[in-house]
Write a structure and sequence with these properties.
- The chain is about 25% helix and about 25% strand.
- Strands 3, 4, 5, 6, 7, 14 and 15 form a seven-stranded mixed β-sheet that branches. Strands 10-9-8-11-12-13 form a six-stranded parallel β-sheet, sandwiched between helices. Strands 1-2 form a two-stranded antiparallel ribbon.
- About 45% of the residues are buried.
- The chain starts with 9 loop residues before the first strand and ends with a strand.
- It is built from nine helices and 15 strands.
- By secondary structure, the protein is of the alpha/beta class.
């Protein structure tokens, strides 16, 4: 008898039908049946176990020039995914191996072995390779330690602090010796989570009053580092509270992703002259050289329980779009993942 599993002939996958204007609408997308392609030389066929939905995907839905090519209309969308290899035409990867790859938004993906990274489901749960030990985790690590040049004793403010990246930034800062860690989030429950579970020194609900006032109250001595996931009023508030030589790492600006008109910029940029402050953009793709060091250090913290993480898991490929929209609404605590 053959050990080869019987594979279905087709797989469900999400296509982008039209480019959303403002908030994405269900009619901009379609869940379609597509034929499963057997792997050619140097390729592997993966049965996805978990797929990732992330805020940056909103940018890929528009045709605007950006750091990554836009999704093509009428074709499958992509994103991070982790799963089991069910057929292989590549040396070094065998059926039964688990890999992290970029062929998400579908049940089965045939991908180049060069773009698949073997992961160990024994070392950590598979889903963590999309979040705390994956791209979001590396974003937090590189953004705080390299882009924002964090040093022991810094006071750190993180926006979107209950999200996958933000919650990790705050905890890494604490574990690396920050003098104070402050977070903002969009609900009282998330604020409680930041302080009680993740060890933030202070946190506030940005819906409860002006961000600048709440930040001044939470950080009376100012901040040395701001990790920005939100933009808008949070960025302006951070510039207002920045200490001399302060650093701001711009990771994302979820508050403006669905705007149809340009959002007004911070009105207090002149303060950067006074503080000699620095603002720098951050793209995780520039920092993959840190990956081994990151997995070693953060993996140890995850195993010891020193670094906690949350996942919001939505079940079923048919709910992929709703999970993505949930990320844009801020429904998730920690990393939003779809389990197939």
């Amino acid at each position: 008898m053959s050990d080869t599993p019987t594979l279905p002939a087709t797989s469900r996958e999400w296509h982008l039908l039209s480019r959303p204007v403002g908030w994405p609408k269900p009619e901009d997308f379609a869940l379609v049946e597509a034929e499963i392609r057997q792997p050619g030389p140097g390729e592997v066929l993966v049965r996805n176990a978990y797929v990732s939905v992330d805020p940056y995907m909103r940018g890929r839905m528009s045709a605007a020039k950006s750091y990554v090519a836009p999704f093509e209309l009428g074709k499958v969308m992509q994103g991070g995914a982790v799963g089991e290899v069910v057929a292989s035409g590549a040396e070094g990867i065998a059926p039964g191996d688990h890999v992290l790859h970029f062929g998400g938004w579908r049940e089965y993906a045939t991908v180049s072995a060069e773009q698949a990274v073997k992961v160990d489901p024994e070392a950590a749960p598979l889903s963590t390779y999309l979040g705390v030990l994956g791209m979001t985790g590396l974003t937090a690590y590189a953004g705080l330690l390299r882009t924002a040049s964090f040093k022991q004793g810094d006071s750190v403010f993180v926006s979107g602090a209950a999200g996958a990246v933000g919650s990790q930034v705050g905890q890494i800062a604490r574990l690396k010796g920050a003098s104070r860690v402050i977070g903002s989030a969009g609900s009282d429950d998330k604020v409680k989570l930041l302080v009680e579970e993740y060890g933030f020194d202070a946190a506030f609900n940005y819906k409860n009053g002006p961000v600048s006032e709440q930040l001044r109250e939470a950080a009376p001595d100012g901040i040395d580092v701001y990790f920005d996931n939100v933009g808008g009023d949070h960025l302006e508030a951070a510039i207002g509270s920045l200490n001399q030589g302060g650093r701001i790492a711009i990771c994302g600006m979820i508050s403006v992703y669905n705007n149809t008109e340009a959002a007004p910029g911070p009105r207090n940029l002149a303060r950067l002259i006074q503080t000699r402050g620095r603002i720098e953009g951050l793209l995780v793709g520039d920092h993959y050289d840190l990956q081994p060091q990151f997995v070693q250090e953060v993996g140890a913290w995850v195993r010891s329980g020193e670094l906690k993480y949350a996942e919001t898991v939505v079940e079923g490929i048919e709910n992929n779009l709703e999970a993505f929209l949930g990320v844009l609404r801020g429904d998730n605590t920690g990393k939003m993942i779809v389990k197939l």
